[in-house]
Structure formats: C-alpha cells, structure tokens
Amino acid sequence: MPHDSTAHDSTAHDSVILSRTRAGVCTLTLNRPDKLNAANDELLLSLAAELKRAEADGAVRVVVITGAGRGFCAGQDLGDVSGRDMTFTEHLNATYNPLIRTIRTLAKPVISAVNGVAAGAGASLALAGDIRLWAQSARLIEIFSNIALVPDSGSTWFLPRLVGYSRAFELMALAERVDSDAALKMGLCEHVFADETFMADVQAYAERLAARPANALKLTKQALNDALTGTLDEALDQEAALQQLAGDHWEHQEGVTAFKEKRAPNFVRAED
Ligand code: LHQ
Question: How far apart are the first and last CA of the chain?
C-alpha cells in the first residue's frame, strides 16, 4: 500500500472541493453543506479538475466522491441559474457532461459515497460512480420533473440500465424518493453502511479496491463501459484486445506466481 499522503490535502476549508489522500484512496468532498452541496459551475469544474489530478497522481489508486454535511448533492444550485447567458444545452456541455464523462473514463475506480440526499443532477452523480456505497439515511430523487425538466447528466442512461425502463420512468415522472433499503434492492447501490461509521466503512472498502491490480481494473472498467453500448461481437473483440494489455503487464505475472507459490499476490508496487 502506498504511504499515507497528506501532500494533496486541501487546507482551505472554504474550498468547494476538499481533497484528501490516504492509503491510496483520494476522497473528494463536495463542500457546500449549507445548500446540501448543490452544484454551481465552480464546484463542477473543480471536481472534474480534482478527478484529473487524482488520475495523474501515482499515490492514488481509488477515488471517492462524497458530500460534506447531511447532503450528497442537491443537483443544480437553483439560486445560481438566473441571469445566465448560456442555454441549458451549453451549460450541460460545459460543466455536467464533461464531469460525468471524466468519471466514467477515469483510469481508476471511482466510488460514489452517497452520505445523504442525492437529487437532480446530484442523483446522476450518485449513479455515475463505478461503485455506489450509501449511508443508511441516504436517498435519491430524480427530482427534475418537479421543476418540469428532463433528467440530465447521465440519469437517462444510468437509471434504466440499473432498474429497467418502466421503473426508471416512474421514478423520473413522479420524482419518487428512493431510500437506502429500496436502493439496495433495486441495485442503485452495492452496499449500505451505518451513518455513524459511514466514511470509515467507505475508506475500508476503498482500501480493498486499492489493493487490487490497478492495470487490470483500469482495463476492466474500459471493457465494461464499452460493452454496455456495444454488441456481443464488439465486446468479444474488445476483451481479446484488452486481455493482451492485461496479460503483458507485470500484475499478471505476479498473480500467476503468487498462485503457484500459494501466497497472496502483491499488486501494489512503486512502478505503478
Ligand atoms: C438548495 C438546493 C438547490 C439551491 C437545497 N439549489 N439551494 C438544472 C438546471 C440547469 C442545468 C443543468 O441541470 C439541471 C439539473 C438539475 O439538477 S435540476 C434539479 C435541481 N435540484 C432540485 O430541484 C432540488 C431542490 N432541493 C430540494 O428539493 C430539497 O432541498 C431536497 C429534497 C434535495 C432536500 O430537502 P430537505 O432535506 O428538506 O432540505 P432543504 O430543502 O431544507 O434544503 C436545505 C438547504 O439547502 C435550504 O437552504 P436554507 O437556506 O433554506 O436552509 C435549501 O434552499 C438549500 N438547497 N437544494 N438545488
């Protein structure tokens, strides 16, 4: 496991994104708690920039996105939209959409650690992670139709793939609130942890991921994302190409050697 790193800790507590890296896990915290971390442009652009920085940082093997205070993210800051000279389309293309693309193409696992309410584009952000971990009191609301908008920032892509078309439509049309028990049953999250121990449980889970073979996980993420949009033929071709990259990497040798030597593999090395 890489050494604990405090080099990238945010020191300014008024920063919209707080960053802390510990034991290979970079935690990015949306930090507008008074507004349930509702997103303005600064928050969206800073989060995308921090994700890119974490991707380039050799000390980071897993990224966690979470929220400060009692909310995860309440979607677009509705106090910040009036008087804009951008269209909705321009706004999405300049801020939300690059962020969602960054998460899904990042060469490292991204965990959405949903500590509280996730609404509107905040729900999309909660869904965009490779793994979704929820606190018991978290809830997700596809709240867009309450203000007569369509779901954006990837919700129309993520949600039906997880819960099916009709359930997705119902959640969107009625802006129904999904609590953590229902989310677990529906497959909107992988695990629910107690509120009291949530961030410690997230860190422990993320450290498990951080110990896994980073190159293989990067290629797995790429293969899965491609497979979600492609045909079986394309997936088979893509798997064969990516398997070559995985098989040629030292991680593969280490895995096979460890198996033969009947020991646990060590996938964390300086050359990563
Ligand atoms: C907020 C917000 C918020 C500002 C809570 N803004 N202050 C849209 C437009 C353009 C382009 C791109 O895409 C989008 C996509 C979208 O995201 S549309 C959806 C926008 N979000 C919403 O409509 C959610 C609005 N918020 C709510 O309905 C509630 O706050 C929820 C259900 C999230 C939580 O309810 P509560 O737990 O009862 O909290 P609260 O309502 O009391 O909120 C706490 C504070 O946070 C409060 O401020 P205050 O000064 O009164 O304490 C809210 O005004 C503020 N806040 N969401 N989006």
Answer: 11
